[in-house]
Amino acid sequence: MTTVAPASLRLRFRLDRGSFVLDLDLALPGRGVTALFGPSGAGKTTCLRAIAGLERVPGGFLEVDGEIWQDESRGIFRPTHRRALGYVFQEASLFPHLSVRRNLDYGRRRRRVSAQPVDLDHLIELLAIRPLLDRRPATLSGGERQRAAIARALIARPRLLLLDEPLASLDLARKNEILPYLERLHHELEIPVIYVSHAVDEVVRLADHLVLLAGGRVAASGPLMETLARLDLPEEFADEAGLVVEGTVGASDPAYGLVRLDFPGGSVYVAHAAEPAGRRLRCQIRARDVSLALEKPRDTSILNLVPARVVAVAGTAGAAHVLVRLDAGGTPLVARITRLSCDRLKLAPGAAVWAQIKAVAVLM
Amino acid sequence: MSDLFHVTLFTLGVALLGTALILPGGVALGWVLARRSWAGKAAIETLVALPLVIPPVATGLILLKLFGRHGLLGRFFEQTLGVEIVFTWKAVVLATAVMSFPLLVRTARVAFEEINPRFEEAARTLGAGPWDVFWTVTLPLGARGLLAGCVLAFARALGEFGATVMIAGMIPGKTITLALGIYHEVQLGRDAEALKLLVISVGLAFAAVWLSERLLRRRTT
Fold first, then answer.
1. Which of A16, A295, A346, B16 is the most buried (most CB within 10 A)?
2. Structural domain boundaries, residue B83
3. Which class is domain A242-362?
């Protein structure tokens, strides 16, 4: 379904600080955005800091793009300033005593920039920071600061970009101001990006690969769409379970404010401004927004009715809900229904059902 | 009048030299105390603060024993470098330096502690090594606090008495500073002369403290 890029980042970090335990063994793709997702205290930031070398994990191992950055068994630990990486911190980290321009220069001067010199102008355009260049960080808004910080991290052509909840300190409006820039970067960057977040909406919009962390351990790791569709996600992620699918815009109905999205095996209507036909949109169908019926419901307000077949049912005994994985003519779907309904409808693998999709969220 | 002028100039020069002498060490120690922790840290902290609390005369006596002709350091300076310290202007500088050191270390430490370590970490991720980070991020961000610390140390040096009188004596034209001068004139019954020295030292101290307060206040807003 999704092609997995060859792993180019391997890490093994084990820490035991009594109340805090970290036990990670990961191989991550060499391109695209990997989201480290999990509740606070799950070890996301510690993992990111260990990758950057800001924190030294005894006995750790880290290989980036074929280079060993840390291998304690052989006594290797490359200090942070010798690791070609870009790091964007949660809070503003622009040097307050320098203008934005000199902040950008700081990294550029220090890294022996390899073969391809970074296209400075392009980066400045991409993040729309030209009007900010001569200003001091203290005079910038939170969103402007983070955009400049992202530019500064990228300007020295890092081989790895680390983002530690870059939007967490921003309010919703500022967040929505930055997300489009991050999406544009996503399409242009050819280096791996590791994005730490505890916000689902950011993850499903930006990530290609998802690592779920809970209690310092990897709960799941894999391509975004597959991982969110898994039925065995730990409790704290069950609410977010669902599918992220990419569809093609078929037709727009501006009079009703709807757009038809075509997937292999079906199509759904989503509330969205008119889009040129053929454009690809990423959207999310959450398991809790999908309900099931044995016969095609009539006279229902739900627009999207898709015939499907039950592939698997998963749920722990005693839990109120179960997750049902469906195959809708080639497109996977997950429904979250009560165990009671599941028993009443006698759902089992192979059963033919109608999936009623209440909401489809367009992500980008 | 020329005597007054000479004493004032001598005092300013000694205080300046004493402050300059302890600047590198004081800043370095302040940084280490602010950013590192190790097993014997508390002992070092206490040792550095000691001259603030023990009687200055006692500090002076310790210095005299150390730097005197038969002292451990005194012998070294005299035999190896051919420099005699006690009862010369060098002893005045030494006494003021030692007495100002704790003040400088304390303000430097606070100045460094107030810098968000995030900025230093950001510099490291941008390819700056430890010294580079210190010169281009830590020092500029702590500059105002460090400057205030220097002014404070300088002001303390201007008024040093107890330690100075022990190790440098009270030799007119040679080791007499404003503070020593006041005491000296009063002993000789020349109250008018003492009053003039008093006005000058209060004026200098006022200016120095005012400057350091201004520096510290502007940094926090």
1. B16
2. 2-220
3. mainly beta
